[in-house]
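Subject: for your reference before the review

Hello V.,

The reviewers asked for a structural picture of the protein, and I figured it would be easier to keep everything in one thread rather than splitting it across files. Below is the amino acid sequence we used in the manuscript, unchanged from the supplementary table.
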Amino acid sequence: MQLTLVVPELIWPEPDDRESLDALPCPGLNTLIARSRCNRRPPQSLEATLCDDFGLGEHAPYAAFRVLGEDAAPAAADACWLCADPVHLRLHQERLILADGGSLGIQSAEAQAIVDELNRQFSDRGTFHAAAADRWYLQLPADTALGCFDVLPLSAVAGRSVGRQLPVTPEARWLRQMLNEAQMILHQHPANARREDEGRSTINSLWMWGAGKLPTGGTGEFAGLWSDQPLARGLGRAAAIPVQGVPENAAALLARSPPGSRQMLLLDALQSPVQYEDSEAYRATLLDLEARWFAPLQKALAGGRMQRLRLVATTAYATLAWDTDRLVQWQLWRRPQPLAATAQALARGER
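And here is what came back from the structure prediction:
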């Protein structure tokens, strides 16, 4: 089996934060990194990296692919889609900081009540859908012209400061007006009044991104894709690749993957801890990944149960890809380094 393993935010983004990086016992991961050929490209989002793997160019219609990957996907293949995800914006030292829906603990009933109200108010302009409590969509007519829709994916702004929310193109002027009206509706909605009374962050805006229509056809070089993330699942379905949820561990993946096949696995559990600077959660999650994935995969590779492994990581340092195989894993003179040393080397541009 050949495996492309995608792990966003694999390396803690602050190389001098010794408390977060020191004494992390992850020999499997460190060995994989030390005995690999590293390629680095400029930093980019997880979404862009996934689309690269499927041969899609810049400004891919992320929303349309993510809709396709939902378990209960709205059926409108020819529509223009936007992700219209619920967020909370707060002012901090003259900057707007964004918290994504995954960090807000949104209840399904809250989401549906707000989406129902948005649909009452905007029935003549589009249709909102809540595929999950924290994943909402805006469906527009197929002939909608949005021009170059240059908005960062939500993963690139969660936990960070944001500037403009929508492009300042003439085509998107009506959409900016719609967002302003939506923010007023959110401010007045009873669900937000209850959240405020309970001391919870309100849903005070939408992050609209990934606009476009689903392309016809699709290609993919993988025989199987394993992911719980809707965008990745949608990319696989569009390319007619068998898509399954993430298995329990490496042993389960190896047992269920045909010998000699090329597989992709996305493990995104580190993304939220890094976005929200939760070093304790990062350490705990990394150690769990080490036990269930990195160490067993390194042993499987060295033992010949796998032929090749590509470890892809979107990080603050760069978009990284470590390529290795069984022979390289037996180059014992390439000594594993602690993860802190790897972060320092990446910060210096040495890897």
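For the response letter, the relevant points are probably these. The mean pLDDT is 92. DSSP finds 14 helices and 13 strands in the chain.

Happy to draft the paragraph if you're swamped.

O.
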